Amino acid sequence: MKNVLLVEDDKAVRDALAQTLDLADLTPVICGSFIVAKDHITADFGGVVLTDLRMPGRDGFHLLDYTQDQDPELPVIVLTGQGDIPTAVKATQKGAFDFLEKPCPPKDLIRVLERALRTRALVLENRALKAQMASGDPLRHVVTSEADTQEEDAPILGLAEQMARAEKILLVHALRRCEGKASVTAAALKLPRKTFYDKLARHSLRAEDFRPN
Known about the structure:
The chain is of the alpha/beta class. It is elongated. The chain has a 5-stranded parallel sheet with strand order 2-1-3-4-5, sandwiched between helices. Residues 138-155 have low confidence and may be disordered. The two termini are 24 Å apart. Helix 5 (106-135) runs antiparallel to helix 6 (159-177). It has 8 helices and 5 strands. It has 2 domains: 3-114, Rossmann fold (3-Layer(aba) Sandwich); 138-210, Arc Repressor Mutant, subunit A.
């Protein structure tokens, strides 16, 4: 999941940003206005939004409000002109994931986008797991990337065991995506840091074990 909904009315800027995303192996979904972008903004959109704030007609604030209505957990990164920091702060207060000043160095843009994409992936994984649990399907076939599978004839776990195992899987996935950064992982999971560390201890996990070598 590397989709970036790019909303920018200036074609030259839009093309430059799209090229930067392409070079970073991200997939730009290019839109020149809110009207074009709104059809992509859904609760199951597998990506994040990168938008200019100042656009003719319905601007970035309108797009931000619309996104919040559709899915308040869909990250929106806003681009602002130089010296427009108070406006950017206002956008952040209204729910923007982050803001960047134009022109911004590509490495800064990609770093923020990758952080937002990790957050979005965790949100969608959490929702999928909750939906599976709500449907009554056993979770014994939910596996980690190390192929931690169970035999077909293994007994179905009780609900408490299923929930504990699901929680551990989510923690492991989150730690991997956030490269073992405890504060970032806790924030992505929307957990107080103490609660997060308590859960790590309960499952005998250590954040540092997930940091890149």
